Amino acid sequence: MHQPPTKIFQLTPNSTKITQTTKEAMQLQLSVLASGSSGNATYIATPTTRILIDAGLSAKQIELRLQHIGVSPASLTAICLSHEHSDHTNGARVLQKRYQLPLYANQPTAASLQRTPKGKECQFNIFQTGSPFTLGNLTLEPFHIPHDAAEPVGFRISNQNTHIGIVTDIGMVTRLVTEKLKGCTCLIIEANHDVDLLREAPRPWSLKQRIRSRQGHLSNVEAAQLICQTATDTLQHIILAHLSSQCNTPETVLHTIQSQLRLEKLDHLTLEVSGAKQPTPLWTSP
Q: Which CATH homologous superfamily contains domain 25-278?
């Protein structure tokens, strides 16, 4: 059967902006619904705007995890994609169709997904990497990150003076990444592997090389260094993401990063490890 062409809508910067002044309206909430090679999705919300960053689980699993933290899937405002890999996009098509959700991506990501059977059915709102745009009373600034995808991005998400920085699936730290994460209240940062565990893992050498490459994934030590480079007086909470099931453990990553934070006199920061099986508790900005 002939498939109708996928519609692409160009996003106009600063559209649908809502001004809020009360403290309650300025609060941000977030939960990492899932993180890892089996699927990634993060919920971020104000009282009037609720979005997903990535939708890499099945639609059913995302619905269950939203309900677990007390959120109705029907209340979502939009889905924003960081890149086209399936562990970040698996549930996007069904969620968009089921709840008539706007789906946001940059042009290279959308084009890559359009070449897949599921992606042909999606309708995309296109953002420009490097250009902030608004969804309700959230401002999202997508920025380039190094990874082996078409045009992968991290996000700096803001409401008034509260900022959340998200970088997962990132092969190396760049000056741009460091700049965009400074001044955040909460960071979601990849800590994929322990170098020694990766070296000893029963994995093909080619896969190990990909993981360690500049287009691959951050190690625990690299994640700790990134946190220390970007920490300012505003930073309070850090969620560690995308842990490898074979080459990392929560205990290992916490020990590595807590040790570095103590050396840098940053041990007042709270750390949390996200996982594949259940969402993190809702974090609320001060």
A: Ribonuclease Z/Hydroxyacylglutathione hydrolase-like (3.60.15.10)
